Amino acid sequence: MHYSSPLLLSLLLLLLSVPAIFLLVTPRVLPPKTLPSIPDPDEADDLALFRRATISSSTALPLPLPRPHSPQKIAFLFLTNSDLSFAPLWERFFRGHRHSFNLYIHLDPNSKLNSSLLTSSFVGRFIPAKATQRGSPTLISAARRLLAAALLDDPSNAFFALVSQHCVPLRSFRYVYRALFFPDRGRRQRHKSFIEISDSDPDLLQRRYVARGDDMMLPEVPFEKFRIGSQFFVLTRKHAVAVVRDRRLWKKFKMPCLKARNDSCYPEEHYFPTLLSMQDRAGCTGYTLTRVNWTESVGGHPHLYGPEEVTRDLVKELRRSNSTYSYLFARKFAPTCLEPLMRIAETFIFQD
User: Fold this and answer.
1) What's the burial of 179, exposed, middle or buried (CB within 10 Å: 0-12/13-18/19+)?
2) Rg for the chain, CA atoms, rounded
3) Cβ contacts of residue 44 below 8 Å, gap of 6+?
4) pTM of the predicted structure, to 2 decimals
5) Which stretches does DSSP call E strand in the chain?
6) Residue 238: what pLDDT?
């Protein structure tokens, strides 16, 4: 048999062309690699919880402004994936105000809790939790789970403050309570949610917007509606209900990011500001009450304060804000900061 045979030459050319065709076609045929998504059972459990919270809140009567004999409360929502190192400091913060707050803790079930750090305020405050992962919608789900639990638990919860295990208070509880409920010397006015809502960096917004794919957020979230903000906030009850009731935007934000764009995947910093900006921008201040130092960020994490940095001057600096409100909380503090913070807690931090 000769290689000059037309049939054989055609066969050889076909065999040689197959790898080239495969290389050209495969990237378009195979779906792009994405990060892990939320398991279906977890999603179903959450949906049932959110429905109960929404129905319960829709039948609740409007509450008046706080009165000494029947105060509205602040629900403190601790979102943590590690130990509660600052529980003793928060215990000092809460002391004497047990009728004015509720406490809810979402602890990653994979974490090992040091029970010796728990105080009376923290015991028994854990809600059913699921695993979380940075750079994934699981952090959104955890925050929504906390909001839903607080909505169901007590109709007196009027503000919902999301904090982390690395957050510390910068003011006394009395100061925080008055700042939220009586922002204008006690005169009745519409209360707002304190959540950062920003569109000041178009390049950053664009990178974050396409983290799941170029057009994956459409049509529910057009680019001009997409916002960025701090993960930690203080929401009114109205907005807490709006968050757990949402299904439309969640369909987009629960989609996993592309692995190739993982460095732009921070859904917890986008979902809440985008949702509330689209639903009730006038009801939000546009800024957060939690101070974070991003000037020395590493790997997407803010500056981590160490014990040698904890001084009265640092607390004074962290309180300062460009808004009409001073900052009430701050992060990110290493667990070793507990001792120096406790030393100045009663004599300075809570003496305002």
Assistant:
1) middle
2) 25
3) none
4) 0.87
5) 73-80, 101-107, 157-164, 168-169, 193-196, 234-236, 284-286, 290-292, 329-331
6) 96
Provide the CA 349 distance to its chain's centre, in angstroms: 25
Point out which residues pair with 103 in neighbouring strands.
76
Whether omega for the bond prior to residue 219 falls within 30 degrees of 0, making it cis, is: yes
Distance CA 93, CA 338 (A): 13
> What pLDDT does 31 receive?
60
Q: Which domains does the chain have, with CATH numbers?
A: 40-58+71-349 (3.90.550)
> pLDDT of 62-94, one tens digit each?
555 445 455 799 999 999 877 788 999 999 999
**Which of 124, 122, 121 has the alpha carbon at shortest distance from 97?**
121
Of the candidates 116, 345, 153, 179, the one whose C-alpha atom is nearest the C-alpha of residue 244 is: 153
Site of tokens 């664009």: 206
Give me the chain's average pLDDT, please. 87
Label residue 25 by pLDDT band (50, 70, 90).
Answer: very low
Average pLDDT of span 315-340: 94
pLDDT (0 to 100) of residue 188:
53
pLDDT, one tens digit per residue, over 254-269 is 999 999 998 899 999 9
The CA distance from 237 to 221, in Å, is: 24
